[in-house]
Amino acid sequence: MDIQNSSEIERLSSTSCSNYMSSHINLLNDWALTSRPPVFINPVADKKLYSSFRSNIHTPLTSTISNPCILKTQTWVKFLLALEGRVPSYNMMTMLRRDPLKSYESQLYDLLVVPRAQFICVEIARFVGGCYGEGWRLNWLKDMGLRMFETVQTSRFTVFEKKEIENINEKKRIEEEAQRIITLNKEKEERVRKGEQLRECTTADEASSRRTVEEGVKVKIMNGIRKLKEEKFVVIDDVVPGEKCVEIEENCIKYFEEIGDRRVKSQREYRGDSVVFLNLFGASEIDVDAVKDVLANVGSCVDMPGILVPDKSQLALYDGTRPSDDGVRGYVKHLDNVGVVGEEGENFREITAIIYLNEFEGEEGVEGDEAEGGGELRCYGHTHELTVDVRPKRGRMVVFKSRELYHEVMEVRGWKRLAMSVWCLKDRRDEM
C-alpha cells in the first residue's frame, strides 16, 4: 500500500491516470453543455466502490479533501483493502489537488499522491452530494467562458489545461447554453428568494382543521415527534390501520400500472422512484385520504413556531421488479434540504414525514445481489459511522429534520415499495 519513489511506477501510473482523467474531464465537459449527468464508472462497480467508501470513510467530504493527512491515514488503507477482489483495476495512482479551483502547476509542491480508487470515490461523493448540479454547471461555464479543459501529460504530472475553442459554431452554441443556464439559475434563485414554495402552504393549525385524525393517533404522533429533541429520527407505528394500507396498496399499484413510469429522467442515476404529487387537502385520482389525514396533522405536532404544511404530498413507488440494469432501485444518501440556511439548493424544508403503505412479505434473501427484499430507510448518525435501517411496515411513519438527517433508500429487490411523504416548511428568508 506504500507508494514508492520509483520513476517507472510513476510513469506507468501517470499514463493510466492520464487516460482516466481524459475520459473523466470529457464527461464533465459534456455534462456542462448537455445537462446529461456523468456516470464516472461502471454502475455495478460504482455501487461496490461507493458502498465501501462510505462504510469506511465517515468524515465529511469537505474535511476529507481539504486535509491531506486524512488521505494518508490507515482509514484509506482499510478502505482499499476492502475493495480487493471486488473492484478491478482501482489501485493506480493519481495526483489530487488540494484546491480544485487552482491549477496543478500552482500547487506543484502540495499535490496529493493517492490511489485512483480514492480519487474516484471523491468524485462520486462530489457528484452524489450535488457538487456537479446546475450551480456547478453555471460556474463552470461562467468562469471558464469558452475555454474548456483538456488533459496534458507532462514528464511528471498529468494536468488539466484550458484549451481555446476555435470553431465559431461551437463557440456560439456554448455561449447560448451558458446564457440559458445563467438565466435558469437566476430565475430559480429569484423564486427561492421570493418563497414561491411558501405560498403553496398553509399554517399547521389550518391544516389540522381541514383534515382530522382520531385523538389517540394524534397523541401518539405528538409523543413520538417530541423525541426529535434528542433523536435524529423517530419511528411511529400504526398511524394508519394495516387493513386500510392493504386496500390503498392495491389501488396504488394499479394506479402506477396505468400511468406508467414516472421516474425523473435526469435523476435516474441516483434515485429510482416513480413519483406523483397529490393534493393534500382536496380529492385525488386515487383515494389515499387515510394517509393524507395523518400527514396533514404532522405540522401541528411539531414544536416549531411558524411551521407550514404544503398543499401537495408525494406518492412514491420503488419498483424492485424492474431489471437491475434499468437504473437504480433505491435512492442514494442525501439530505432533504441544505444544512445551512440559504446555501445553494435551499428549499425551506424543515421536517420530513414518510408513511409506508406496504412491506416485504417474503423471506429476506441473505446472499447474492438479487436476493429479494430491501427498501429500508438507512439513517446515518452524527459521525456517519453508525447507521440504523428502518424497515418499511404498513402504517409506519418516520419523521426527521430535513436539514440534519442524511438518509438513503436501500435497493428494493423483487417487490414494489410504496410510501407517501410530506415536507413541512418554514419561512427563513430573513436569515438568508
TrEMBL record:
GO biological process, any: cellular response to hypoxia
Keyword Oxidoreductase: yes
Cofactors required: L-ascorbate
Domain Prolyl 4-hydroxylase alpha subunit intervals: 231-425
InterPro entries for this protein: HIF_prolyl_hydroxylases (IPR051559), PBDC1-like_dom_sf (IPR023139), Polysacc_synth_dom (IPR021148), Pro_4_hyd_alph (IPR006620), Pro_4_hyd_alph_FE2OG_OXY (IPR044862)
Keyword Oxidoreductase recorded: yes
GO function term, MF aspect, one: peptidyl-proline dioxygenase activity
Keywords recorded for this protein, A-Z: Dioxygenase, Oxidoreductase, Vitamin C
A Pfam family hit: PBDC1
PANTHER family: EGL NINE HOMOLOG-RELATED (PTHR12907), HIF PROLYL HYDROXYLASE, ISOFORM C (PTHR12907:SF26)
Name of protein: Prolyl 4-hydroxylase alpha subunit domain-containing protein
